[in-house]
Amino acid sequence: MVHYTEGQLNDIYTQVLDHLKKILNFRDEEFKYWFGNSYLFDIDDDFASIVVTTKVHKTIITNFIEEIATVFEQIIGKKVGCHIFLQAEINQSIKISKNNLSDFDSKFFNTKLKEEYTFDNFVTGKSNRDAEAAARAVCYYPGQYNPLFIFGNSGLGKTHLLHAIGNFIHENNPELRVLYIYSEDLVTLLINAMTTKTVEELKDKILTYDFLLIDDIQRLKQSTSQEIFFNIYNKLMNENKQIVITSDIHPTELKGIENRLISRFSSGLSVPIGSPEFETAKAILRKKMEGRQNDNIMINEEVLDFLATRFSSDVRKLEGSLNELFFKAILYNPEVIDLEFVTEIFKDDPQIKVESELTAAQIKQVVCEFYGLTKSQIESKSRTATIANPRHIAIYLCRKHLNMPFAKIGMEFGGRDHTTIMSSYEKMKKMLKEKDTFQQALHKIERKLGV
Ligand SMILES: Nc1ncnc2c1ncn2[C@@H]1O[C@H](COP(=O)(O)OP(=O)(O)OP(=O)(O)O)[C@@H](O)[C@H]1O
Predict the structure, then answer these.
(1) Region Domain IV, binds dsDNA: what ranges (predicted)?
(2) Predicted ipTM > 0.95
């Protein structure tokens, strides 16, 4: 990598500005106003970092990022991306991240893996079996399903599975290096590396790992960091390192993430993880009760039924409900935790009221009643208009009122994939614009649903 001195950076930037002035349509004083106080902070292998003084300058100059990159290519003879930073961002990052890379291993390696999240204590059922099987598969065949992308709502075990992969590898293949990282930490690292001119070192560090486990990728929104990430991602893939990513939505529905990344995320294996069904939720509760200190507390079967029914949409809440119950049991010391005790404990819990909120099942039911169909008809693959159109309406309503991801709606409608659901939704949107009859039907159904 070429290291430029301050003087060289200064020379290069002077030439860049001269060229830019000729191609941008600014008057002299305008150009001076926008670019006059900017300077070139650094050029590394992939990026030129330009520093400006105010947010407004950053916004305006960012509009010309492509032109600036082209001029850089002409002057320095190689293609680089351009980043615009505020002086304040540079100052802040330099302050907090001087030691970031030396901390890297202790901060992001090993210590971050939660030992308690293993495959052994991950309870499987229909809703999460595919995700668990895929997670195990990457442990046995690293690089074969690359990247593995696990998506689903909050609290359904995505992080648990990532850690389970890491723990499994540590135990069974200790020579392989695993890096678990939360996306927001990754963004901080990338930005700091840019501002402390340590991008190459960071890349080299990350490339020493065999498994990169990235949690909650939807948070990788900072656009400047996406470019470096893209670069690192490609290098890891080229070296056949295993990448596992989690997100709350299917890769194609990610917002604020560049298309080239989205298409790469979709190119491996994407598996959904859903809310546990009743029996799985109960099995999770039993698992979470194992090894608790308060073994002597008796808990009735119907209590597990109650919790599994009310809280299964989020395993984190399911766990929380159990903790609360045990805590209250220690406090009030009932002979046995029974349904009466539980309903009293949770009587003011807003979660219980979730029952009255609109669900996909209610939407399907009301649409079926309206059109005289059965549940299995609306969920079927039938293309007959009398069945397909009501299905489009129900899908449209799920998206509109529940804001459900397309992949999740697909699960409600006979396991269709998200692209089919997306096209169904678009079709109904178009039909509603074109035909009054659909609009009227939609309003009547919405009135019945009370929305
Ligand atoms: N199938 C399961 N078996 C056992 N525990 C589970 C299961 N699913 C989830 N859990 C537990 O539920 C809690 C929440 O899970 P986790 O943090 O993995 O969810 P998440 O999908 O990553 O959520 P978020 O998107 O909010 O990060 C954890 O304590 C985890 O151990």
Answers:
(1) 330-451
(2) yes
